[in-house]
Amino acid sequence: MNAKTNPSYLALNTYTKLMRAAESVTNRVGRTMSAAGLTISQFGVLEALHHKGPLCQRDIAAKILKSTGNITLVIDNLEKQALVKRERISEDRRYLTVTLTESGETLIRTVFSDVESAIVTEMDSLTSEEQETLGMLSKKLGLPEGK
Amino acid sequence: MNAKTNPSYLALNTYTKLMRAAESVTNRVGRTMSAAGLTISQFGVLEALHHKGPLCQRDIAAKILKSTGNITLVIDNLEKQALVKRERISEDRRYLTVTLTESGETLIRTVFSDVESAIVTEMDSLTSEEQETLGMLSKKLGLPEGK
DNA sequence: CTCATATAGTTTGATATCAAATGATATGAC
DNA sequence: GTCATATCATTTGATATCAAACTATATGAG
After folding, report:
1. Would you state the pLDDT for residue A143?
2. CA angle A46–B142–B130, rounded 5-degree value
């Protein structure tokens, strides 16, 4: 049985192409973030705060799919740059509420718009119909295991 | 202009779904590797050696799209587990040839086959035709910038 | 041959990431 | 009220990753 007649061939081939696509796009879009001095996670945190308003670290972690231990460090680094601040304003004193500072708000507005443009540029190699199809197929694959 | 009439909406939406799909699949397939005590990069190195035979670090880095500095450490860790060995067999004494040991060869055979199965399982949520379409669209997106 | 330059690999320093352990606080059972 | 348990955050230790500096070796120009 040669490679192309192996019944797994199609699946493996599709997988490889999907991974390459995701990686290429991530790298290119990521440049827009690093040009602004942000890592992808940092951008994710700022973007979450920008769209959802102040959040506790637990919720931020859930939103960007990282561990809470990880978020602690990401927030540390954002705080050093004075882009966010931590406050204990909830009644439950275990919660730290993370808020964008003014400069954080300004930065994320600009960078978010730049990233948006970069994504649109990336997707421009597909027609609208192709984008819809890709979105639909990706969604099927991305569903949690149980389906 | 609300979200859905924004001309960027489709692109952003497609992007998000693509990223989620890639991440979900990577995480699920990655479990097969970590079950064998391998990181994704370590698996990548072993797999490259398995399919291409002995390689120098430079070529391994190129194959799995990581920096050579990075490969040094990955190989260090594989060497500690006695899965690969470094030898200076090229005429050019700058080159280190990395080879699978017998236990490395045995391990990668098993794990590769498990990973293959995991990928096939993942792709099973799509029909063959859908997989072909996804592959084709991914390929368009994954092309280097110049196209 | 000698020197400049290029290349292979290593090391270092920074950030990211997770998992596991820990500390602080809140909550529920009694 | 007190104790057991759960939750939020931090810390620690491991690996991963990149970029930049560095070492050793090779190669080409003269």
Report:
1. 73
2. 105
Q: Is the dihedral of CA A6, A10, A13, A16 positive or negative?
A: negative
Which overall architecture, per CATH, does domain B36-113 show?
Orthogonal Bundle (1.10)
Return positions of chain D under 7 A from a protein CB.
Answer: 7-12, 15-21, 24-27
Q: Please identify every stretch of chain B with a pLDDT value under 70, giving residue numbers as ranges.
A: 1-7, 144-147
Q: Is the CB of B68 under 7 A from strand C?
A: yes
Convert the pLDDT of each residue in A70-126 to its tens digit: 999 999 999 999 999 999 988 888 999 999 999 999 999 999 999 999 999 999 999
Point out the nucleotide closest to B59 (alpha carbon to C1′).
Answer: C8
CATH class of the domain at A3-142: mainly alpha
Q: Which of B54, B59, B60 is nearest to B87 (CA)?
A: B54
Task: Report pLDDT digits (tens) over A20-59.
Answer: 899 889 988 988 998 888 999 999 999 999 999 999 999 9
